[in-house]
Amino acid sequence: MNEAAQIKKEGSIRRIKALVIKEFFQIIRDPSSILISLLLPMILLFLYGFGVSLDLNHLRLGLVLEETTVDAISFAESLKNSPYFEVRMAKDRRSLEDLIIAGKIRGIVVVPSYFSAFKKRTDQPAPIQVIADGSEPNTAAFVQNYVLGAWNIWLQQEKINQNLKGLPLVNPQPRFWYNEELISRNFLVPGSLAIIMTLIGTLLTALVVAREWERGTMEAMMATPVGIYELLFGKLIP
User: Fold this and answer.
1) Cα 150–154–157 angle (5° rounding)?
2) Side-chain half-sphere of 179: how many Cα atoms within 13 Å?
């Protein structure tokens, strides 16, 4: 019984080896498989690396200053100096509404006339208005969060300029050891390598099986003792 199983195992290995050799010869005769296995992963990796990004830089914002006090101008300058925004000044929000409808800007920040009066009150929310394009909810959420972050940074700097008045006793500063700049591309590409290799392997296997049917050689192999699993291993190994 053991001898019969050993003979069956050796025969299966020989058949798989013969299929692998046949596949190598077919790959050499048909260079398109080599192009797909080499060129397509590079294209997909380029698309995943440079075409897919979760970072938003240079958000086009409209800024309306309803008062021109020192505090309002200081906050406006902090937005202008931020690498995340491209600020377009306007006298009133009506002149910017057409731009946001046309998609030329992503949001509007309004600094109201009572900005200085409410700025130093910690029991009140930020005295600024953020208007975002709701037709793109993801971008609108980014605009809201980025402006809120810019507001918190500016308010923190104002407290520092006031001799640390009102600063929290504990100020946590998390640090990322990998990808310290938090570029989303560096997070996406390593994981996409496994996805691309899985996709290419599946595509090539399906392609060579389809070609067997097109050339009529699949019927010839079905007449041989080659089993389904042996055929799959013979296609996958090369």
Assistant:
1) 145
2) 9
